[in-house]
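Supplementary Note 3. Input sequence used for the single-chain structure prediction.
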Amino acid sequence: MIKQVRSYRRPKIVVIGGGTGLPVILKSLHQENADITAVVTVADDGGSSGVIRNYMNVVPPGDIRNVLVALSNLPQLYLDIFQYRFNSKDSFLAGHAIGNLIIAALSEMKSGIFDAVQELSDMMEIDGHVYPASNEPLVLNAHFSDGTELAGEAGITAADKKINDVWVTGAQPGFKPHAVHEVINAIMSADAVVLGPGSLFTSILPNLMIENVGQAVLNTKAEVIYVCNIMTQKGETEHFTDADHVRVLHRHLHAPFVNTVLVNTAPVPDDYMDRKKYDEYLLQVQHDFNGLRGLGCRVISNNFLKLRDHGVFHNGDQVAHEVLNLALQAHRRN
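The predicted structure, written as discrete structure tokens, is reproduced below.
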């Protein structure tokens, strides 16, 4: 008698965002053996990424660099070299990470960031896919509650004004922001699409404001999961509840599309956070579970908190566990 063996397909999970929160979740999902595609924002114009972008007119490499490291199977020494950042005494290279320079060089060699990242993914033994949200650098624009507008992610963050809406434009005149077909195919074939964690207006929404990316997120059969921030952010989400975050997402895509929200319920200890080091974070996000359910969202609340270095972060393993379960449920359902 021949015993039948059920074939196993790794759950397909697309994670969309940028910033420091994204690699934490990706690293944990990588350890859970998920089939991961990371779609990374290309609207950053601050720090080393911004300097390289201004000099070379390439997609900012910083968020892409951190995602590559999170999904790489290279020995840790190689990753430490890739992540090494020159100190302020090295005036010519001050503040630049070696990985940023490598990505910028490959972008020139391959005539675009998308092919460059695919080449680097092979070199770094990436398990999964890393896709820039656009093959061209984009500019984030914001409309504030006082009626003013501003272009540029770093300037928007520093403006310390209440943001009403954001949108993206091409850095080059006449360029209409769009994602390559690999990004759209990944979203449409996914079991789960994860938004965040990360800054709502400057890490998550810049991706969704690319027209074909936003449309794909609306049309996919995947479970769309929003990982709500633990803390409110100065100049972005001051006084926001978790439901307020989702309302902004729905308003920008003109439709309710978030299926499940992951919400941290563990308290941050008083006086734990280093307010000078993490000066953009304010208070814990307040809960409005009735508001979330009124928006059509399933709520998964748990202790997703990880405290380290006097900062507040998501526990990547806890988030990955919930995301994986939701992806498996969606795969069986579809």
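The domain at 12-44+130-333 is CATH 3.40.50.10680 (Rossmann fold). The CA atoms of residues 227 and 262 lie 5 Å apart.
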